[in-house]
Amino acid sequence: MTTFKPLSDRVAIRPAAADEKTKGGLYIPDTAKEKPKRGTVLAVGPGRVENGQTIAMGVKEGDDVLYGSYAGTEISLAGEDILIVRESDLLGRIDD
């Protein structure tokens, strides 16, 4: 199995699945689906370095997070779509 470890202040996220249908029960075609802006953290880097000191990350593996619409870089790793973003591109952590 392929493993991935982000560098610096980067975070690997598994985007949540897009909605298949509306609240009213209508199915949404693939061309009209919005990209999800929510996902689950798969891996985190060690943190950014400022003035010779490493600043710890504010998220950890398994956290649900929100991120900006155009944040990060999408990659495919072992057949799975993953989004790589900087910690500063995260909008917040979701605590259910």
UniProtKB/TrEMBL annotation:
InterPro entries cross-referenced by the UniProt entry: Chaperonin_GroES, Chaperonin_GroES_sf, Chaprnonin_Cpn10_CS, GroES-like_sf
Keywords from the UniProt entry: Chaperone, Cytoplasm
PROSITE patterns reported in the protein's UniProt record: CHAPERONINS_CPN10
Superkingdom per UniProt: Bacteria
CC terms in the record's Gene Ontology section: cytoplasm
Chief location category: cytoplasm
CDD domains to which the protein is assigned, alphabetical: cpn10 (cd00320)
Gene Ontology MF terms in the entry: ATP binding; metal ion binding; protein folding chaperone; protein-folding chaperone binding; unfolded protein binding
SMART domains: Cpn10
Pfam family, one: Cpn10
Subunit and partners: Heptamer of 7 subunits arranged in a ring. Interacts with the chaperonin GroEL.
Family under the similarity heading: Belongs to the GroES chaperonin family.
Function description: Together with the chaperonin GroEL, plays an essential role in assisting protein folding. The GroEL-GroES system forms a nano-cage that allows encapsulation of the non-native substrate proteins and provides a physical environment optimized to promote and accelerate protein folding. GroES binds to the apical surface of the GroEL ring, thereby capping the opening of the GroEL channel.
The protein's name: Co-chaperonin GroES
Organism: Longibacter salinarum
Gene name for this UniProt entry: groES
